[in-house]
Write a structure and sequence with these properties.
Layout (H helix, E strand, L loop, with lengths): L1 H18 L4 E2 L7 H13 L3 E2 L2 E4 L1 E2 L5 E4 L4 E7 L11 E4 L2 E4 L2 H4 L6 E4 L3 E2 L1 E6 L6 H17 L1 E2 L5
Parallel strand pairs: 1-4
Antiparallel strand pairs: 2-3, 3-5, 5-6, 6-11, 7-8, 9-11, 10-12
Helix pairs in contact: 2-4
């Protein structure tokens, strides 16, 4: 009689186990072959940890993206220009490069933070869950800056 009980227990916990872990779904932006090659090189160079969070699998597996932690900090390459960005926009500086952050996200720490290396092509976007603010966003900016500068092309300074 223990087998049915064990099977029932497995059926009850399987959904909970499925909810834990698993690849992080990411959107893959449309991009040119040249941008895809740059993004693939950038993504391959990303570290195994970011802002003290371990790297997780992403879906699709070949996406030019990486995810760290749960909930995930998501790094995507090849994203379009962020809404609200212009050459007059101010940017947060870290290790000599600028990240555009929408104004409404500065003052509200309950919002996820979307940071974009808007002056580089292809562009890189980093989404930091609100619960990791303010430490993870500063760490992520600083840790990613050397890789952005090495693998992507500066076209406009984002000051």
């Amino acid at each position: 009689m223990r087998r049915p009980a064990a099977a029932l227990a497995l059926l009850l916990i399987a959904p909970a186990l499925a909810a834990c872990g698993g690849p992080v779904d990411v959107d893959v932006p449309e991009m040119s072959d040249a941008d895809r090659a740059a993004c693939d090189a950038f993504t391959a160079a990303l570290p195994s940890t970011l802002a003290e969070h371990e790297r997780e699998e992403v879906d699709p597996a070949d996406a030019p993206a990486a995810a760290y932690g749960d909930p995930a900090i998501v790094v995507r390459c090849g994203v379009p220009e962020p809404e609200g960005f212009s050459l007059a926009s101010s940017c947060e500086q870290a290790n000599g490069m600028g990240y555009y952050i929408p104004d409404e996200q500065y003052g509200d720490r309950d919002l996820d933070l979307t940071m974009t290396a808007a002056g580089y092509r292809p562009r890189v976007e980093v989404v930091v869950p609100a619960q990791y603010r303010p430490n993870a966003n500063a760490a992520a900016m600083a840790e990613l800056a050397p890789l952005v500068k090495e693998y992507l092309t500066l076209v406009d300074d984002c000051d």
